[in-house]
Design a protein that fits this description.
Blueprint: E1 7-10, H1 12-20, H2 27-36, E2 40-42, E3 53-59, E4 69-75, E5 79-83, E6 86-87, H3 88-91, H4 97-110, E7 115-118, H5 119-127, E8 138-142, H6 147-160, E9 166-171, E10 177-179, H7 180-185, E11 191-195, E12 200-204, H8 205-209
Parallel strand pairs: 8-9
Antiparallel strand pairs: 1-2, 1-5, 2-3, 3-4, 6-7, 7-8, 9-10, 11-12
Helix pairs in contact: 4-6
Length: about 210
């Protein structure tokens, strides 16, 4: 099953299809990704996507105050492999010096809680290109397996957000993702904005907690 923020590597046919469907202005970036065998990132399905299509994204480093994001659709059969978002401990090596100590403390306190990185920190770690700026956040994915782990993970994130610009999502077992800051601020029983592979909707916090063992 494909999940948002997963990394996807294309085979030759996949790259050929991506380039054939690309706008001329995007061809150079796609060629660069193909030459380095860098992954594209799985995104939410668009309404026009065919049943066997996989929706992917490529975000370029900041330029003139913004990022160019390129949307790509390929047949799922042209994906060579898929991996989860980069583990935070692997992405941390690309972090600026000001984050080094606080990130080490976060990873030490995490224990068995697995945190994964996406967004600018992960892209900088994977490509070696400069994505991080002074205003960058650290986008994290946290996938709790139980209510106990959910609560422990929230305590972890809240504690270390005092020293790091933490952002990102909690991902529940059915793929429903909620911004962890929205979850933090939501009262019991209220509804929160949920994103998954194909939709955006509102779901109650109680319903999401019931998905956990």
């Amino acid at each position: 099953m494909f999940s948002r923020h997963d990394q996807a590597w294309l085979n030759g046919a996949g790259w050929a299809a991506a380039l054939a469907g690309a706008a001329p202005a995007h061809a150079q970036a796609l060629e660069q990704w193909r030459a380095h065998d860098w992954p594209l990132i799985i995104t939410r399905r668009t309404p026009d996507a065919l049943p066997d299509a996989l929706c992917l994204g490529l975000a370029l480093p900041p330029d003139a105050g913004g990022k160019l994001r390129i949307a790509v659709q390929v047949n799922q059969n042209t994906v060579a492999r898929v991996e989860n978002a980069l583990p935070l401990h692997a992405a941390a090596a690309a972090a600026p010096a000001r984050w080094a100590g606080p990130l080490a403390a976060l990873l030490a306190d995490a224990g068995r809680i697995t945190l994964r990185a996406y967004g600018s920190l992960a892209l900088q770690a994977v490509t070696g290109l400069t994505y991080l700026t002074e205003s960058s956040d650290i986008d994290l994915l946290f996938k709790p397996a139980s209510v106990h782990e959910l609560d422990a993970g929230m305590r972890l994130l809240q504690t270390h957000a005092a020293h790091l610009p933490l952002d990102g999502e909690i991902v529940f077992p059915d793929g429903a993702a909620v911004a962890w800051k929205e979850w933090r601020d939501a009262a019991a029983g209220t509804r929160v904005l949920v994103k998954d592979a194909g939709s955006v909707r509102l779901i109650s916090t109680d319903s999401l907690r019931e998905l956990l063992a």
